[in-house]
Amino acid sequence: MIIRFAQLVLLVVLTTASLQAQPSADSLRAWLATHPKADTNRVNNMTALSDALRSDDYIQAMQLAHDAQLIAQKLHYPLGEANALFALGVAYGGRTDYATAEQYLRQARQKFEQLGNRLGVARVMGQLGWIDTNRGNYVAALSTGLQCLKLARQLNDPLLLRQTTGRLAMLYNLLGDYEQALRYYTAALDLHQQTGQESSISRLLNGIGELYRNQGDLKKATRYYNKAIRLAQRLGNEGLQAEAESNLAAVEVQQGHTEQALQLGRQALRVMLARGGYEVVSWTYTVLGRAHLQLSEADSAIYYGRRSWNLSRHIGYKEVTRDASDVLAKAYALKNNYREAYRFRELNAAYNDTLSGRQTQQQLALLQQNTLTAERQAQAALQAEADRRQRQWLVSALIGLALVGIVAIVLWRSYRRQQQANEQLRQQQAELQAAQNQLVQSEKMASLGELTAGIAHEIQNPLNFVNNFAEVSVELVDELMEEQQKPERDTELETELLTDLAQNLQKIGHHGQRASGIVRSMLQHSRTSTGQREPTDLNALADEYLRLAYHGLRAKDKTVNAELITDFDPAVGKINVVSQDIGRVLLNLFNNAFYAVQQRQKNGQQDQSYRPTVAVRTKRTGSTVAIHITDTGTGMPDLVKQKIFQPFFTTKPTGEGTGLGLSLAYDIVTKGHTGSMTVESRDGEGTSFVITLPV
After folding, report:
1. Per DSSP, what are the bridge partners of residue 678?
2. Which has more pLDDT, 618 or 313?
3. Which ranges constitute the DSSP H helices of 401-454?
4. Given 167, 537, 639, 656, which is the most exposed site by the fewest CB atoms within 10 A?
5. Long-range CB contacts (< 8 A, 24+ apart) of 224-232?
6. Percent of the chain residues topping a pLDDT of 70
7. pLDDT of residue 530 exceeding 80
């Protein structure tokens, strides 16, 4: 999982630091206390103190910036007002009130533009880019970041260059372009080391640790987290130390070092609760919940999972909400509370579906940016060629003053070459457009696979155990061999080393079997496609998922009752399909059918004659097989039928549906199996879906 909070904390620091070297917060407080006069110096120092406090006390930072703006307005001091508005935008952004933050930042940009202050405009652009990143507008954020980098180089401003380089490193890490992220991280680290800004260096080291953890290189991630922690300890900055310790605790959980993870997580939690770092707090609760799961301590896992669930939903941190639901599902299963386990497993799947769209949007941002870069490079090359030809034509024209005949030949050849260049430009643009359309279509198809990409991380955990224990075993063997070479051998130490080695080998075998079991489970029970078609008994598949959906609904609501009707054509036989994908389509349609009859039953409780019914029928006709799924539920009007297969369209209340189920089902049937999927419905009477597959 890409852990967002450490990256975003660093983005705040790198994009909002003042462009002038600032005095300490204590010295600024002392100056303000002894200089009560409302002049321009007071405005500047209040704004500077707001900037110094923005990481530790957002409320005081907002109040200082607001007061500075009012004084600047009274003094008719436009530069001071612009800086105060910028500080207000930074403070509100830190409190995740992005709408208010954007309002103040745009006012600040207008002031800076009126003053012709390009440096101030660049600062505002950087902060707006950070807000776009938090909102998931990655295309806009990346475009803004590259513009800021260009401005920083044009203005030759070292601090703006450091800020922009670090911001782009964070953004590329969020987008999953780790090669670019590492390049910008290295550049930002060099720039900050030149000026000795150790707090920013600590955050950069923490960010590099996140990069390696996202790539699965836990050894390098641990090394960089420890560097960040040591530097934060030397600086006496508990907040920086807690951020890195929270990330290191997650690595310890992945490596199975449960006690170390609990110690680090609790230590980080105490600091961040006092500081109000709620994104870090919600993530740390999840880490502690996973650690207690490893110890089979279900009650403690539920306690931390609940706290993470409630806090992450409150602040809108969907990645942590998804992980918290996974912790709660596993913890309730340990307590044999399968009703709650099933509920949180469904919520986890729903958040996974939602976040898969965000991952696709991240990849699309890189795709669009790379395509735009390729187009600009092609246009620049063609423009350079056109300029060269124009210069050549001018030289020929000068020579033609004396040699009219030669001029005619040169002009004719230049005209022909220009035509060829224009034709080449049209061909390249057409090729670029075709390539972009093809890549976008591939992204849409890839979204199905992304829905289950997360299960691969489950395999990483036992493999990490195997690698770590193997590495430790090699060290034990080396130590044993060294001991055996000594004149006076310590037999007790040798016995201890052999015992440790035997235990390590047992753990390697245990976790190897665990990884093998996960692979077998994926092959047998994964809800996602392997891409391999195989002969499948559609009648048995439909019957299995009909019962599964019904009993799943009954597990949540014992009052639900419905008549199940099946009519299977024996001639259907076995059909070559991707059984996991078709099973997912059937399960989605059955869940919708039971939901519809349940809603009609609730809405018409006085109608004793109503019989809730869900029926499935199969029929083979020539070279096609049809599956009819019919319910006597609420039905749908014509306007809803027209949109039913659109992504993210749903008729369910907020929180009960993602709007992706029928869209994905439609793509699986029509694009994945070259079949068709239609719907017939009458409002208030029921609905019938028909899936047609080629034999």
Report:
1. 690
2. 618
3. 404-450
4. 639
5. 225/251, 228/202, 228/203, 231/198, 231/201, 231/202, 231/205, 232/202
6. 80
7. no
